[in-house]
Amino acid sequence: MSVFTEASLRPISVTGNSLVVTDADYSYYTMKSATVKIQNGRLKEFLNITLIGSPLSVRMEENDVISLQGNASPSVYSAALNNVSYFNNELDVFGLPDVVVVFSVFDGEWTGSSRVTIRLINVNVAPNVTFNGTAFGEINFVEGGGPSALVPAVIVNDGDHTHLIRALVRLINGHRGDRIGVLRSLPTNVTVAVSPVDNDMVVELSGRATLIEYMKLLSSVYFDNTLPLPLNLSLETRLLEISVDDGQNVSNTALVHVSITHINDGPVLQFSRMVDPVRVAARENRTVNASFVEEGQPITLLPDTAILFDVDSVNAAAAQVNIVRMRKGDRLNVNVTLAAFLGISVFGSGSQSLNLSGITLLEDYRMVLLTCTYQNTKDTPEASLSVVQFTVTDDAGAASLPAIVIVNTVDVNDAPDVDAGVGVNVTDTVYFTEGRQSGIHIFSRPHRIAYTDEENHCIAEVNVTLVYAFDCWPSSSMLMHNDMLMSTQGHCSWFVE
Question: Taking 80 as the threshold, does the pLDDT of residue 274 lie above it?
């Protein structure tokens, strides 16, 4: 019996040089022909023969039949037949029956036969991972663009297994914020575990599943970076290693290159200093409240702790300050003298929108924005809030997310206005005729008192003083208000000087 080992790169001798052709009446007959045939031949099995200096002719019939022709002695045929070799190209011979090779020799009258059995030895073939036939895969990650999946697709070949039990994806040079995983939903019998270790991260898929199921999962491997904007992202190419296990052997390690595409990050204006400002979340520390006292002095909008930074730019080119929710009388101002000294032009000072322009350092813009003030010029501002929005644009054209200041007005009670008549000055003249038996109304048509108060509709106290009087006195504590008799809600006092 001969032995052929699976995946062997060399053919084996069928006879092991042990075949001998004999003929008892050789003195009368020479050998005429011989045939070698695989009895139960299969598509990927081959017979071959090598003859050097032999008088015999050879004819190959398909892959598994050899015919020899020629008059020659048994020893010549023995030598020829011992040169027959066998090869099997099957990747997996597990479960295949033994191979039977039949040798037949014809002396012109009779045919003699002999059989040789070849035992096929199964050897587990390790799976092989490629990327559509290429040596390595590639992922391109765009900064801030979300997870990027593996391109091209992963191909797993395994000559003797239709299932896998495990796959490993390892990020070997991870940086801050890096993440890997799989996007596709897992089969019911497959689990995933993620194990970050230092700068390495391993995603392990475990569970028996078909090659196709594992290929789909591995083709959905993604890379992401979860640092919030702005990203302080290393541009070093990341390396991923992918391997699979069929339960007997582990595959080769396939390599994936993760290239990083940098996108210019905008500046960040925030209202409090942080130990690590790069970790600022999308809306963290960018809203603050301020209070304006009615009819008071302008207030500074930004706190002294406000900072302005950009992870990939040192200069700013513009800034805008806009009242996005405004009230009548709202006004914005900035120190234009300081701005001009720092090379920043200011447009719209004293209005509801400020535009700053000029390429200079971020710190210069911060200093000017710290001088930005708000004021409302109405005596009694509307009750709603004013919302002021700050944005800064760097010299590469990327704008910051808005920073918001919400301005609340502190109300101050205004004194009522008193008028001696519609369209009449506060000072007016009425006449009393000497000898008149009845008094006169000081404020009578067309001379009446007009009372207005933008904040209150009731009077708490009225004081009427006769600053120069001789033999006269007041006689009523009733007032006319908007053509209607209105009582005071407190008391009415009359004084004679």
Answer: no
**Rounded to 5 degrees, what angle do the CA atoms 294, 299, 300 make?**
160
Q: Does residue 119 surpass a pLDDT of 50?
A: yes
The predicted model gives 8-31 an average pLDDT of 86
Q: pLDDT tier at 195 (50, 70, 90 boundaries)?
A: confident
Select from 129, 203, 133 the least CA-distant residue to 164.
Answer: 129
CA 407 to CA 385: how far, in whole Å? 6
- Amino acid 286: pLDDT: 76
Token output for 82: 């011992």
- Which residues, 6+ apart, have CB-to-CB distance to 61 below 8 Å? 67
Q: What's the CA gap between 78 and 440, in Å, rounded?
A: 159
> What is the rounded average pLDDT of the residues 344-358?
95
Give the residue from 281, 219, 280, 233 showing the smallest Cα distance to 261: 233
What contacts 24+ positions apart, CB below 8 Å, involve 327-330?
A: 327/376, 327/378, 327/381, 327/382, 327/384, 327/386, 328/378, 328/381, 328/382, 329/376, 329/377, 329/378, 329/381, 330/374, 330/375, 330/376, 330/386
Q: How far apart, in whole angstroms, are the C-alpha atoms of residue 244 and residue 274?
A: 45
**Residue 230: per-residue pLDDT:** 57
